[in-house]
Structures are given as structure tokens and as C-alpha cells.
Write a structure and sequence with these properties.
The chain is an alpha/beta fold. It contains ten helices and seven strands.
Length: 212
Amino acid sequence: MIERPGRGAPQEVLVAERNPLVVSALRELFDRQGDYAVYGHVRNAADLSHALHERMPDFLLLGWSLDGADAPEILAEIARQGLKPRIVIFADQNNPLVVAEAVRLGVHGLCYQFEDPAILFTTFQAVARGRICIPYAALNRVADSPLARLTQRERELLGMLGDGWTNTQIATRTGISENTVKYHLKNLYDKLEVRNRAMAVSLFATEQRRRG
């Protein structure tokens, strides 16, 4: 159990997660375990910022995607505001991008929603003691660049995405139709195991910094 000298109340957890079923399961899990209590729940970045200013939790359990923003944007905004909660990413996918971005952005812990609940509590325990708790197996995957899976054309398109080009601009530059651009981008997202343009650009930027 987490050591709480002079404190008998449960550790307070603010959950930032858009899936109500996950939130409900966490409340029940923490109630049974007894060392933690979900005192608040938010679904989007604006509400999260307000909640952190109003009351700083012992832990912020942050889903990778909230309504309107993903974790990298949210973490950058938290840092910009000078807020310093102890943050554990509660990811719903085992993706090297998630791990790489979590490490880069300085979160305190990371665990997956599909893992045994005991791992979540172990992560909290480590973070409470001032440690960084990231799965070792996940860190190993970060070393293997997903960009190596891309074709030359897909690498070219990814670079254009990184420069902020629209699908129309990419089609004009490459001389292919917008439908063909969309087809290539879908393959690119599948290979990188990302869901959208923003996540692909984030991965590209991370790779560029690593190589630089």
C-alpha cells in the first residue's frame, strides 16, 4: 500500500477519461480497494484545466484521448499553466507512439486499461514514492521506429503533413487525386498504428527530434 504518514483518508484521484464505462469501473475498483477515491471526472481539456485549478489531486489519471484533444496537447497545456499534478497515463492501446510521447512529456506513470487492476495500483505506489513507472516492455518498443515501415511515397506524404499541408495541397504537389491521397494516408495511419493526422504528425515530430 502507498505510505501516507499522518493521513488516513484515501488518496484522491481525478479521472480524465471520455468513456463513462471506464470511469464507472474505476470508481468501483477504487472503492473496493480503499486506498484511493475518485473525487472528480472530466471528459475534455477545458474542464480538466478548471478542475486542476480548483483542487489539485493526489493523482491525475489521464486517458490518452479526451473530447477535443489528445494527451500530448493536454499535457503541454498543463505545463504551460505551471500546474504540477502527479500524472499517470491510462492508455487504451499498446502503441509505441503513446509510450514515446508519454516519456517525452514527462508523465510519472503509464499503464493500460486492459491490464490487471493490480498493475494500476502498483503504478500509483511507485509514483507516490517519487519514481517514474513506465512498462519496460513498452520502452523497448520505442527504440524501434514505426517510420521504418513506410514506403518512400508515404514518407513524403508524412513530411507534407508535418508541414501542415492539406489533402488538396498534397494532391496538387504530387499530381495525384485527393482520393488517392486519402488512400495513401489511410495506409500510413495503419502502419504507424495511429488514428488521425494529428497523431501521425506528433510521431513524425518525435522521430525528427530523436534523429536531430
